[in-house]
Amino acid sequence: MKKRYLVLENGSVYEGEAFGADIEVMAELVFNTGMSGYQESITDLSYRGEMIVFTYPLIGNYGVNRDDFESFRPAAAAIVVHEIARRPSNWRQMMSLPEWAESTGMPGITGVDTRALTKELRDKGAMKAALVDAYSDDVLKKLALFETDKTLVHDATTKTQYQNPTDGVSIALIDFGLKNSILRSLSKRGVNVIVFPANTDAKTVLAAHPDGILLSNGPGNPQDVAYALPMIQTLQEQLPLMGICLGHQLFALANGAKTYKMKFGHRGFNHAVRTLSKDRLDFTSQNHGYAVDRDGLDQTDLIVTHEEINDQTIEGLRLKNHSAFSVQFHPDAAPGPHDAEYLFDDFLKMIAETSKETTQHA
């Protein structure tokens, strides 16, 4: 295997061996603490524009299968591992992770001290990084000039409206970079899902006569998706609404809150979250580098419903005056525990109750 170098913007260099696609990339470097679920993570569109460091030491041991994709191609710009599995074994596997990475154009590096690298990211915060075949001072100069793409949602969203039809309740899903597992969670509940591009206006969504609105997850800085805020403000006044991950952050911005970039974010599926009203604790799947700012929330109509127990990050919100709520984590999991999947059922109950009230007042 040929040598490959991971170069961080602060000058740190990690040497390893190349696998996957034979290309050089620059991206934001973040770490994921999951012990499995690498296929779902790599194809989660919330990772678009990011290079993933997997903290678990062995990655790829069960290969890649056809069922666990969250999108059709890798969303991550590259992956960094301590050891890539040489002999993957699983009855579902189609090919090895390196074979799939090469066939889909995603580069990787193995043989890296990911423990030391993760400690550095925790200390310094998420950083810009380059994956290159040869190290020189020019790499650092290029990194200094590199800027994170501000059109990540535009690139990730569907370009056309489409439907997953059933005869059940109808939900308009605004796609900011959705995971397939959200569609699976809704499908098994018999929901008729109509998926809209991120830049759709409220009038177009309402013309489909949905019973509720779901704002999906997605990549990047929520402030780069400000064009969606007027749509959210209109829709939340007319229909029950739920937001997930980036959808949670956009829901907050639409209601007067602020967001901020976290030092190194939450990425993995072992994050404990407390539901404040029930004193309930769930282990959750998370992938976000931005969070809702607590300062100034008392000047809005938003109420905090969930908190991360380690750093008290806001993990859930609801509106005082409308049937609308959001969560920062992924209730669909994939990968991760399904502790919080009940939130989809809560959303459907909210839709049913709102429909009943509307009928009674008609």
TrEMBL record:
It is an enzyme of class 6 (ligase). The keyword ATP-binding applies. Residues 2-132 form the Carbamoyl-phosphate synthase small subunit N-terminal domain. Pathway: Pyrimidine metabolism; UMP biosynthesis via de novo pathway; (S)-dihydroorotate from bicarbonate: step 1/3; Amino-acid biosynthesis; L-arginine biosynthesis; carbamoyl phosphate from bicarbonate: step 1/1. The active site is at residues 245, 330, 332. SUPFAM superfamilies: Carbamoyl phosphate synthetase, small subunit N-terminal domain, Class I glutamine amidotransferase-like. L-glutamine binds at residues 46, 218, 220, 246, 249, 287, 289-290. GO terms for molecular function: ATP binding; carbamoyl-phosphate synthase (glutamine-hydrolyzing) activity. It catalyses: L-glutamine + H2O = L-glutamate + NH4(+); hydrogencarbonate + L-glutamine + 2 ATP + H2O = carbamoyl phosphate + L-glutamate + 2 ADP + phosphate + 2 H(+). Its EC number is 6.3.5.5. Transmembrane segments: none annotated. InterPro entries: Anth_synth/Amidotransfase, CarbamoylP_synth_ssu, CarbamoylP_synth_ssu_N, CarbP_synth_ssu_N_sf, Class_I_gatase-like, CPSase_GATase1, GATASE. Residues 1-170 are annotated as: CPSase. CDD domains: GATase1_CPSase. GO terms for biological process: 'de novo' pyrimidine nucleobase biosynthetic process; 'de novo' UMP biosynthetic process; glutamine metabolic process; L-arginine biosynthetic process. Keywords: Amino-acid biosynthesis, Arginine biosynthesis, ATP-binding, Glutamine amidotransferase, Ligase, Nucleotide-binding, Pyrimidine biosynthesis. HAMAP family: CPSase_S_chain. Belongs to the CarA family. NCBIfam families: CPSaseIIsmall, PRK12838.1. Small subunit of the glutamine-dependent carbamoyl phosphate synthetase (CPSase). CPSase catalyzes the formation of carbamoyl phosphate from the ammonia moiety of glutamine, carbonate, and phosphate donated by ATP, constituting the first step of 2 biosynthetic pathways, one leading to arginine and/or urea and the other to pyrimidine nucleotides. The small subunit (glutamine amidotransferase) binds and cleaves glutamine to supply the large subunit with the substrate ammonia. Composed of two chains; the small (or glutamine) chain promotes the hydrolysis of glutamine to ammonia, which is used by the large (or ammonia) chain to synthesize carbamoyl phosphate. Tetramer of heterodimers (alpha,beta)4. This is Carbamoyl phosphate synthase small chain. The lineage of its organism: Bacteria, Bacillati, Bacillota, Bacilli, Lactobacillales. The gene is carA.
